[in-house]
Fold this protein.
Amino acid sequence: MSKTAVVTGGASGIGQCSVERLVADGWTVWVLDLSEGKPAQFADQPEGAARYRFRQCDVGNAESVKAAFEEISQSTEKVDALICSAGVIRTGSLEDHTLEQVNVMIDVNMKGPWLCVREALPLLRKDSSVADPARVVVVGSIGGIRPKVGTGFYGATKAAVHVLTGVFAAELAPTGVLVNAVAPGTVATPMIESVQNQREGSGYRLSGDSPLGRIAQPDDVVDVIMFFLSDAAKFVTGTVLPVDGGTRAAFIKK
Ligand SMILES: NC(=O)c1ccc[n+]([C@@H]2O[C@H](COP(=O)([O-])OP(=O)(O)OC[C@H]3O[C@@H](n4cnc5c(N)ncnc54)[C@H](O)[C@@H]3O)[C@@H](O)[C@H]2O)c1
């Protein structure tokens, strides 16, 4: 039987790439996002399209998340994997950030994964065990490990979600739910295009190349997400794994 995944932020970037990979691997996938961004490839893949579901949801809003998981629970008793990729970034110095900017980052990046994991738990726990665990993968950020001027508050929300990943992992381990995070460096997605548009006057500079000589593509991150969903990772929980081409390891003087 097809496994079921829920992907927040699945309409764009890393989330959308995860959806494409999961559907291609035979999963049934629910996308929770503000608006739909159905992968174009499904147009000529009716079998894949039949396993794709979209539900409009604001992950920072408790009622919206509750309603989304209520709808999901009407069509499935079990969710095998939850990928929390929805995220927003606002650039600026800590001095200049507005309360509105800070609130949206807290709501989406920090409260979002917490709300989604909580609402998903009855479905994740169904038939899961230490031997056959359900999986949660949160998309954190290297900014939560090595903070940067110009995205300081964003980095703080990502550091917070790394902490939540670890504590959820320990709390949920006995019921067979594994919780891990990927911490990408710069990834070529619409988010990074928006950062480039916002950076005027923010003090923020893109890292550019990693020691491996390039920024990441969404597939680089999704490879690691798929590892966390695989049998090979059945004894891995509470991990925050950088996917940054070595950017965090050491500064490169150019
Ligand atoms: N792109 C990067 O360089 C990079 C680096 C490190 C971490 N990340 C993280 O990766 C994740 C995915 O980012 P991306 O680069 O794919 O960005 P993206 O902008 O391409 O995709 C983010 C998705 O999240 C959705 N979203 C935003 N607010 C939402 C809300 N309130 N409710 C539901 N969905 C919402 C957007 O509609 C969008 O579809 C984010 O958590 C981001 O912080 C990105």
The helical segments are 13-24, 46-49, 62-75, 99-125, 152-172, 190-198, 218-229. The beta strands are 4-8, 28-33, 52-56, 81-84, 134-139, 177-184, 240-243. The mean pLDDT is 93. Residues 8-9, 11-15, 33-34, 57-60, 85-88, 108, 139, 141, 184, 186-187, 189-192 surround nicotinamide-adenine-dinucleotide (CB under 6 Å).
